[in-house]
Amino acid sequence: MKGSSKRALVILISVSLLIVSVTIYSYFIKPLYGEIYNLKTKEIGLSETYATYESLNNQFQNILEQYQNSGELQNQLSIILPSELNAPYALGQVIGIAKLNNLEIQTLTIKPLTIISAKNNSSDDLVKDIGTLRISARFSGTYENFKSFLKGIETNIMISNAADFKIEGQSATPLLLFTGSIDTYYQTNQ
Question: What domain of life does the native source organism fall in (predicted)?
């Protein structure tokens, strides 16, 4: 075979391969290209949807953990504002603060007062009415101890108010008499 025949044969084979590859591309690859594009778009959309659902799931898990921890929060709140009338708890707080400040307790009486409506005519079941328990007390001690007692009542974890205190002197002793009342608050179930 001559060199020019070989060249013509190579060119013919090359042109044939080019025609075959263009035919394969036209009949097999190009029709699938649109489908591949659609599948790739769908994949991107699904991955974005998955990322969104994963983010929402994480947020839901965080909220669920917060609500599961709300029992602890309820316990902490019931120390500050008891969920029902608990006179022994309130008396224990007052007696503890008095003893801590070296005041001698002479008398203690308790009296529940009227309930304050916190709902303002709303139908919200989460808002409870507030009850007041008045503790009338008579202490003896020094003025400095009494000031420390009042500061203890003000800064105590249980919500309370010191009211109506009267100071009297005693003739036989240098100690003073302190008579007054302390209002403590609690939530009602009404």
Answer: Bacteria
Q: 3-class SS at 48?
A: helix
What is the rounded distance in angstroms from the CA atom of residue 87 to the CA atom of residue 76?
18
Residue entry with tokens 């100071």: 167
- Write the single-letter amino acid at 62: N
Q: pTM, whole model, 2 decimals?
A: 0.58
Edge-to-edge strand list for the sheet holding 130-141: 104-112, 130-141, 176-187, 160-169
Helix (H, G, I), strand (E, B) or coil at 189: coil
For residue 31, give both structure tokens. Answer: 């029709």
Dihedral in degrees, nearest 10, Cα atoms 151, 154, 157, 161: 140
pLDDT per residue, tens digit, the chain (190 aa), is 688 888 888 888 999 999 988 888 888 777 777 888 888 999 998 899 889 889 888 888 888 777 776 667 677 777 777 878 888 989 999 999 999 999 999 999 999 888 877 666 555 566 678 888 999 999 999 999 999 999 999 888 888 888 888 998 877 888 899 999 999 888 887 6
Q: Which residues, listed in sequence order, are joined to residue 181 by a DSSP beta bridge?
A: 136, 163
